[in-house]
Amino acid sequence: MSNLAIFGGEPVFKTIRSSANLVTPDINNFLEYLRESYDDHNLYYDGPATRDLEERLAISHGVAHCITFPNCLSSIICCLAALNVRKGSEVITPSFAYRRFGDLIAWLGLVPHYCEVDASTLTPTVEMVEACINENTSAILLVQPMILISDFTAHHQMAQQRGLPLIIDSVEAPYSTCNRQRIGSFGDIECFSMHASKLINACDGGYATTNDDTLAMRLRSIRSSNTGIGMEMNEMHAVMALASIDGLKEQLERNRARYHLYKQLLAKIPGITLIEYNEHEACGYKNILVRLEDDWPLSREGTITVLHAENILARPFWSPALHTNKTQYKTISGELPITDRLASNHMLLPCGDFLELGDIREIASLLTLVQKEGLEIKRQLGDRSISPPAPISHIANISSLLGWDAIEDMFRDIFKRRFFTSNGPLLKKLESLLELQLDVNHAICVSNESHAFMTAIMSIWEDSVLFCTSLSPMLKRVLSLIAPPKCGETDEQILVGVYTLEDWKIKGKKIREGGSKFLVVLNDIAATTISCVCTNDDELAERVRNTRTIPGIRKKIPVYATGNGRTSEAQAALALIKLAPF
Predict the structure, then answer these.
(1) pTM of this prediction?
(2) Residue 14 DSSP class
């Protein structure tokens, strides 16, 4: 026991073993797709790769329509908007769910109404949902758990009888079936993620599937920069997704081997239960979810503390429960004892392409030791806890030429480092470069202009705002969609404006030297869809970062609500190339 890293021993692993997937597609296959978009003069959005991706996903899910988005969160936001849910109304959703569900509902001026879940399925029964329906209910948002795929047919029938739309977040189930039917058509609309940690790695991205022609038309209109709020998927991300799909069969075989070894080894350890896939159905085998039973000697937090010290990046599963979060927006819930228990005893173990079979044996061996020596570990551990280990990354050399050779070199480097999104080294380099070139203290990059504008507004939701520039029709539509800011309600106002890089070079000095706090959105950095939020105020910058949020961030300054505004390494690298002569 003295060899445990938490007590001063050497960690089992010198580098982290993560619970993220991070599958790297074949680079040559990726470059073939990318070359088609490059030759089409479209590395932006709505190029040949995006159209091909939507068609292939619709066929795979057996649905009439697939609509892609920058990420899964923006797909759910657009779905709620397309369903015309009225502001101030309630959206029923489980409290045992993705940590930002309440926030994205609140972004639209809606009220999360949290319901209980069944302990055996980790999802609400029809009766649990019905118990929350009242005259102010406008929609139901359910979640497919990572492992246990639920049949939501009865939920959909109940929702139709009540005249309520049903959205299903199937973020982890793009390959799964239920009763031999591919997930994707069980509600009015289903949403999926293509983040780098998911089964399909698009660097970042999301999509929605539906058989409703009218709803699909509304979604495309809302997504559009011309008629909606500008939430199109980046073409480079579509290329990445296509290459990932081409390698899906081989990935599933590797995932299956990891899962079966975990199943074999964990069955020998008392007090820990593997949540098993239904292998009579199609499944991705990616995530490894366990439940710590009452006779497990450590708390989940104590167990994770021991594992983190060994560079084993285990994570709490859907914890804390959403109804326990203190928020600035209104929420509704009763007592949810099942959720409280589930949120305290489930955790995710390492998985994905960074994990070798030998690593799984080491993890199981360590868990065996924890089980046998748990009481003594608990005594010595006390209240000690450590932060998750940080991934090691390196800043790449970026060519200053915007030709095919530079783009190919850039992506080969990104693939080699396998750091695709979420606050990567190229994004940090881009933000530092922008701060220097724009003469501001803080430049916070966000995935696109609409999301940057939403992030800026939601970060100062309780402050009085003065718009110092006119807004484009698209941003006016964004402003009408989200919870409204307070305009002109006090003498001390925060200036908010939207500029191009060229306009900021001319007008920025006056704003910077005017003495007022400001948040400025600089749109479409170097024609890469990236935008950034700039300010000289440290507190405002922290609020923007906490609103944009990076997974695992420790918020020192609370904000109204958070949202995934991630910028991928692909976007950041292309921007760095294009900004060289700026």
Answers:
(1) 0.90
(2) S
